[in-house]
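call fold(seq) -> tokens
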Amino acid sequence: MQRWTSAQHEESSAAWAAEAPRLPEIPGQLIFENVYHAYFRHTVAWIRVLGVPEAEIEDIAQEVFLVVRRKLPHFRDGNLAGWLYRIAQLTVRNFRRRAWFKNLFSRGQNLDATEVLDTSASPATALERKQDQRVLTQMLARMSDKRRATLVLFEIEGYSGQEIATLHGVPVKTVWTRLHHARKDLVAMVAALRKQREYEAGKS
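ret:
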């Protein structure tokens, strides 16, 4: 299996950011190389959504496609994107189990979906934004897996409700319900944080 170079990843990321992601269709016979090139960026996004540290994402994506290469000849589901997403979920679960045994205090809980900073920002602005991103990461980690995945796929990665429903194998109505509760959770956590900061500012 060919691994993408850093330049290819940068070019792919730029193209990904330029337009909202859409689940690709692969006409005709499913060939591994076509699936790999059509879904690699999506798989990277899913793995990030599932809470894997940025430094581990590419290796886990490669693990996903090793499984895909082995199982693709037997694929009969019809929902290719959902099938790939489930493989990504299981691969991430296995990664977390390995990480647990390797280091009890490192559970792979960080979500760096908003890691990229504006390079034109001043150091002070960049630091403040970095701190905000860290707080957001901590808040997302406190959500249930289903709510967090729905929120990040919709609000950050740009998937539609129908596409998320396809990935998770649930009705669209369930997606909107999860998104509603995830937004409520996030608003409540932000409000609590703001209240805490105001209290600490009043004491100083």
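The two ends are 58 Å apart (CA to CA).
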